[in-house]
């Protein structure tokens, strides 16, 4: 038996635009995504000689075949026609769930990377990402990581330059948002403002943190904020204490703020900590 170890990193959507609904019910997106240093740890015993098991440290999350990490392992073994002779997957969660931080997708992506490496990398990283699309829309990005323009329903990736050095504050309020419900809702409303993805790409190419921060925008942010005004409170605290730009990530409910330094990030956390326990300071990865 061999044990594999792999880090599973969260993502934020620096921008997120919904371009339209497709015939298959999914939506075409355009999003600049960024991996950040909030991480889960994934361990996989390969060759246990026993039926597959999955343990997740957060007991309210699926502990078996419903977990995206299990689905990713099954998909990989079926596709590659590999019999691993028993898998035991253990996930130590730190990424908040229901946050728009891609926690489940990150775990699935980590499983794909770990198994592919163990079996001598028969798939390139981009082929592995393509396979991941069958598990969930955010999985392809999570497989590759870094900074990327993500299109289609999440399966088309183009790498962008790394972000300049900066610090993220991430704050997850108590409430969560149903992703399918939010996509249904956006079909019924006019989208008044769209992110300028070209400006974001230019800012990344220039390594200009102020311009990156000026261009963070998520079309879901005003829709969720309308029902949960506390997001405005979180954003206003970030803004008052030095954030260069703040926005909701994915389908929410976490807010990220781009801070110029760790010191500013610490002040923001200090101001939020009495009301919010799920607070993180992170770096781009
Ligand atoms: O792919 P994933 O399981 O993350 O998607 C969750 C839900 O979000 C889907 O069932 C769908 O309702 C919605 N979705 C969408 N278009 C996308 C991604 C997700 O409509 N591009």
Task: Describe this protein's structure.
The structure is a single chain. With 285 residues, the protein is an alpha+beta fold. It has two domains: 2-159, 2-Layer Sandwich (Ribosomal Protein S5, domain 2); 167-282, Alpha-Beta Plaits. It contains ten helices and twelve strands. α2 packs across α3 (125-132). The longest helix has 16 residues, at 103-118. It is globular and about 55 Å long. The model has no long low-confidence stretch (mean pLDDT 97). Cytidine-5'-monophosphate binds next to β3 and α5.
Put the structure in a nutshell:
Helix content is 34%, strand content 28%. By secondary structure, the protein is of the alpha+beta class. The strands form 2 sheets. Strands 1, 2, 3, 4, 5, 6, 7 and 9 form an 8-stranded mixed beta sheet that branches.
Blueprint of the fold:
Elements: E1 2-13, E2 15-21, E3 27-46, E4 53-56, H1 68-80, E5 87-92, H2 103-118, H3 125-132, H4 139-144, E6 147-152, E7 156-159, E8 167-172, H5 179-186, H6 197-206, H7 209-214, E9 217-218, H8 221-227, H9 230-240, E10 245-248, E11 255-259, H10 262-272, E12 278-282
Parallel strand pairs: 2-9, 4-5
Antiparallel strand pairs: 1-3, 2-3, 3-5, 3-6, 6-7, 8-11, 8-12, 10-11
This protein binds cytidine-5'-monophosphate.
Cytidine-5'-monophosphate binds next to β3 and α5.
Number of DSSP E strands: 12
Main structural class: alpha+beta
The CATH architecture assignment of the largest domain turns out to be: 2-Layer Sandwich
Strand content: 25-35%
Assembly of the depicted chains = single chain
**N to C succession of SSEs:** EEEEHEHHHEEEHHHEHHEEHE
CATH class of the largest domain: Alpha Beta
State the end-to-end distance. 31 Å
Number of helices: 10
Instruction: Give the number of domains.
Output: 2
pLDDT < 50 stretches: none
Mean pLDDT: 97
Q: Sheet bearing the most strands, described?
A: 8 strands, mixed
Helix content, binned percent: 25-40%
CATH fold group of the largest domain: Ribosomal Protein S5, domain 2
Distinct small molecules: cytidine-5'-monophosphate
Q: How much is the radius of gyration in Å?
A: 19 Å
Globular, elongated, flat, extended or rod-shaped: what is the shape?
globular
């Amino acid at each position: 038996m061999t044990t594999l170890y792999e880090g599973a990193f969260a993502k934020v959507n620096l921008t997120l635009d919904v371009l339209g609904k497709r015939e298959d019910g999914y939506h075409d997106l355009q999003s600049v995504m960024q991996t950040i240093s909030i991480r889960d740890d994934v361990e996989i015993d390969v060759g246990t000689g026993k039926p597959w098991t999955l343990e997740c440290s957060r007991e309210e999350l699926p502990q078996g075949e419903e977990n995206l990490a299990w689905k990713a392992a099954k998909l990989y073994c079926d596709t590659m026609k590999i019999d691993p002779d028993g898998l035991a997957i253990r996930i130590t969660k730190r990424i908040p769930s229901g946050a728009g931080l891609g926690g489940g997708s990150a775990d699935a992506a980590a499983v794909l990377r770990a198994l592919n490496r163990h079996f001598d990398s028969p798939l390139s990283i981009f082929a592995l990402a393509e396979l991941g699309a069958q598990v969930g829309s955010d999985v392809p990005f999570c497989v590759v990581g870094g900074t990327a323009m993500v299109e289609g329903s999440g399966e088309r990736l183009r790498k962008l330059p790394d972000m300049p050095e900066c610090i993220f504050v991430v704050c997850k309020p108590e409430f969560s948002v149903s992703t399918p419900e939010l996509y249904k809702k956006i079909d019924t409303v006019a989208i008044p403002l769209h992110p300028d993805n070209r400006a974001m790409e230019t800012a990344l190419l220039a390594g200009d943190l102020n311009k990156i921060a000026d261009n963070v925008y998520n079309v879901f942010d005003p829709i969720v904020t309308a029902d949960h005004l506390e997001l405005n409170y979180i954003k206003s605290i970030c803004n008052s204490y030095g954030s260069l730009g703040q926005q909701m990530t994915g389908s929410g409910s976490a807010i990220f703020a781009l801070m110029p330094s760790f010191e500013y990030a610490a002040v923001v956390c200090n101001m939020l900590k009495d009301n919010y326990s799920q607070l993180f300071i992170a770096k781009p990865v």
